Amino acid sequence: MADISPLRNAAASARDRARRAIDIAMGLEPAVRRSVFTQFDADRIMAEAGALDGDTERQKGPLAAILVSIKDLFDEKGQVTSVGSAILADAPPASADATAVDRLRAAGAVGCGRTTMSEFAFSGVGLNPHFGDPGNIFDPARISGGSTSGGALSVALGIADIALGTDTGGSVRIPAALNGLCGFKPTQSAVPLDGAFPLSQSCDSIGPLAHTISQCSAVHAVLSATTPPPQQHETLRIGIATGILTEGLDAQVAADFQRAIATLAANGFALTDIDLPMLDGFGNSNRVIVASEAYRIHASHLDRMETAGDPNVLRRIRAAQGFTPQDEADARAQRASAIAAFSAQAEDFDVLIAPTVPTVAPLIADVKADFDRLNGLMLRNPSAVNFLDGCAATVPMHASQPLATGLMIFAPGGHDWTVLRIAEKIEALLAPLSATSPAAGQY
Q: Sorted alphabetically, which InterPro entries does this protein's record hold (predicted)?
């Protein structure tokens, strides 16, 4: 558990590893590289790697020489935090690293570029009119998923070992699932949000995207300053979420989900269907809470967004102008009740499962033509966990299919290490079925 060693090559210095990552990044077409990174400064990366090679104490850290791409909403000392927006491109550089970034660097990690994202992290599809639209690692004509879009591509392309992302309604899990990666969204309170530009103070959380759950666990241990508890014998009782989380699945997701269930049943997991009635109407309440908080954060520059912002993001923020204070109070009351009900109902299970996203990655052209519907579809399942203040991982479940799908493993807040431990077991069972290394040569 919490083992980062598969990423390491004991014979390679941090500079060697950084040089290889830089070569891959600089080998991309400039427009593609710009769609993945808001800033990729090779000299800065090499300088940071060289500093680590000369620091014997940090070389002992649990993430020594691991390359981490950083979503463009985290402060890094001396860098502009533009949050994927042209509006903040001229903001003053940050005076200090965000707490999450500081913890990663203290553990020996090396920053490996600032990654693109949906503007202000307010969409689940990952498109960005300022930097370009990152494609999917399996098919560049399809979305990467968002909002940690560039982060997913930085890992899938082999540039970064880990992507540092945020998840307000699925922004780690959606791009991880659609690009054949693993991702982890912790309990919101597990990782300090200091120095991370907010979308919704009630729902924002910080987590990693990586090739394996073991790598996610190693990063979460650093970010949360916790260690996994001693492992005990467990029956591994899994609830199969029914209702809204399994409605409207496309053919591939439905087939992959049933195959995953059959695999778990064949390997001794105790599986039981479970309905989650507390999610009835959650989408509207979630929208009221997130949009209201986003509106208060961005109110001072909404006029600039009219001419220099993403119109889809602006429309989502401005939706809050139609909500009353009572609407927001009612939404928060519904959420509090749902969190309590979910915690009580989930006591009979170690974790619950559902598809991470109900469809494979849509085509970019289709999303641009039908943004509201497809963005809502991408966000539906993962945002339910944020609404319930839960924790969740995603692992690949797409077998030999040409597009990736993900299995979401989730539980009430506070059960982060249980989710990670069981997700690692499930990943091991599903991994032989899943082709997680597409031909990235398309890029």
A: Amidase, Amidase_dom, AS_sf
